[in-house]
Amino acid sequence: MAELRRYRQGSGAPAATLESVTQQARRLTLNWSDGRNGQFPMMWLRDHCACDRCRHPLTRERLYKLLDDPLWERFDGDDALASFAFDASALMLTWRDGHVSRFDAGWLHQRCPGQELATLLPTPTPWPTHFTPSRVSHADFVDGSEGRSRWATALLRDGLVILDQGPCELEEVSRITESIGPMRSTNFGGRFDVRSVPNPNNAAYTAIGLELHTDLPNWRQPPDIQLLYCLENDAEGGESSFADGFAAAEILRAEDPEAFRVLLREHQGCA
Fold first, then answer.
1. Which residues face 100 on adjacent strands?
2. What distance in Å separates the CA atoms of residue 23 and residue 41, rounded to the nearest whole number?
3. Phi and psi dihedrals of 29, rounded to 5?
4. What is the 3-state secondary structure (H, E, C) of 28-78?
5. C-alpha–C-alpha distance, residues 123 and 153, integer Å
6. CA-CA distances (angstroms) from residue 17 to 32, 35, 36, 199?
7. DSSP state of 110
8. In angstroms, rounded to a whole number, what is the distance separating the alpha carbons of residues 215 and 223?
9. Collapsing DSSP states into helix, strand and coil, what is residue 250?
10. Listed residue (31, 46, 30) closest to 81, CA to CA
11. Which of 106, 113, 122, 217 has a CA-to-CA distance to 263 between 20 and 30 Å?
12. 84: which strand partners?
């Protein structure tokens, strides 16, 4: 459904406005104020109409079937389109059967032929010196999409975000997980308690400190997100330390390019 994604708004929205539209046989040529232009086939425009008759209003799945359209044969000519109109922000098309399609100019601007579709996800960013992870309160996270959006944005950008002031309840981490996506189980289970126990089978179940490490690097598809939810710590110590592997790699690239090349190119087995 990537072709239906809203174009980026706010500070990332396309600044260009639609300046002119001309019809040339089976396509429309659009020109924007930033000098970009693109040719859009009539068939493509009709197939991408996103009105509620052509796309389900809730699922946004396609209802319109191009091959069943009586205008199908007309798309090879120049008479499928009855008329068009535009302003700086939108293009309106009226087809020969009376159907009307409306396109945001910014949406079309991002989909010019040969133009790579920009992602709406935040760009992963190496940590600067004295990096401090973002914090989102548990109440903001569970009470509305704005808090959850800030949490997800920080996670995707920095790789680390803190959710604080949550309730001291065993299953709360599971509820948080399910609000993000399906929980994936590992050999430890879906949710598991990290505590000191007799006869441990993993260093995590002891009182010894753990050095910086990556969990489950031997897995073909390790979990995308790991949630650590602290309920209670009545012992001294227990602080958590995190490091940015990408920032470390960039430092290595700058200080020792040959070592970086070896790290990048040479295959290393896992013991």
1. 94
2. 10
3. -105, 125
4. EEEEECCCCEEEEEHHHHHHCCCCCCCECCCCCCECCCHHHCCCHHHHHCC
5. 9
6. 5, 10, 10, 68
7. T
8. 9
9. helix
10. 46
11. 122
12. 93
Instruction: Return the C-alpha torsion angle 237, 130, 128, 125, nearest 10.
Output: 40
Name 90's bridge partners. 104
Answer positive or negative: Cα dihedral of 172, 173, 174, 178: positive
Q: Any alpha helices (H) in the chain, and if so which ranges?
A: 42-47, 105-109, 138-143, 145-158, 172-180, 245-255, 257-265
Token pair of 44 as six digits: 């493509």
Residue 23: closest CA among 131, 89, 95, 73: 95
| pTM tops 0.85, yes or no | no
Query: In this predicted model, what pLDDT tens digit does every residue of 163-187 receive, in sequence order?
Result: 999 999 988 999 999 998 888 887 7
Domains recognised in the chain with CATH numbers: 2-109 (3.30.2020.30), 134-265 (3.60.130.10)
Both tokens assigned to 137: 């309160």
Per-residue DSSP letters for 139-158? HHHHH-HHHHHHHHHHHHHH
Q: Rounded CA gap, 238 and 236, in Å? A: 7
The label of the residue with tokens 């535009």 reads 86
Distance of alpha carbon 154 from alpha carbon 145, whole angstroms: 14
Tens of pLDDT, residues 11-60: 445 578 999 999 988 999 999 999 889 999 999 999 999 999 999 988 88
Query: Which phi and psi (to 5°) does residue 12 adopt?
Result: -100, 5
The residue with tokens 């302003």 is 87
For residue 52, with 0-12 CB atoms within 10 Å meaning exposed, 13-18 middle and 19 or more buried, which class applies? exposed
